[in-house]
Amino acid sequence: MLLNNSAQSTKTLDFEKKLAEALDKVNEKQLKAEQATQDFLAGKVDDIHQVLILAQEAKLSLELAVEVRNKIVEAYQEISRMQI
User: Can you tell me the distance from the alpha carbon of 5 to that of 30, in angstroms, rounded to the nearest whole number?
Assistant: First the structure.
């Protein structure tokens, strides 16, 4: 079933929007972890567990984003190899 142009462009924009939002969240986690580390090093925060949890969350989010990127690239390569 083929989608008409407006429906297809809406889905494309939704995907772009969702991808941008997800990448923004990954970036926010990275910045939050970096700020927590800086605060800990400056002596503003005593709870190292919270700093480590934020750093681990940021690391896992980045790893997930890289895996999603790899899957998107694999899908693109698979589609480009298809014979029409």
Answer: 37
Amino acid occupying residue 36 = A
Q: Which two tokens stand for residue 46?
A: 């005593």
Q: Please, how many CA atoms are within 13 Å of residue 75, restricted to the half-sphere of its CB?
A: 6
Interval 17-64: pLDDT, tens: 999 999 999 999 999 999 999 999 999 988 999 999 999 999 999 999
Distance between CA 28 and CA 51 in Å, rounded? 15
> Which residue type, as a one-letter code, is found at position 29?
K
Q: Identity (one letter) of the amino acid at 56? A: Q
Q: Give phi and psi for 34, each to the nearest 5.
A: -65, -40
As given in the structure block, the two tokens for residue 60 are 């896992």
Q: What is the C-alpha to C-alpha distance for residues 22 and 28, in angstroms, rounded to an integer?
A: 10
pTM of the model as a whole: 0.75
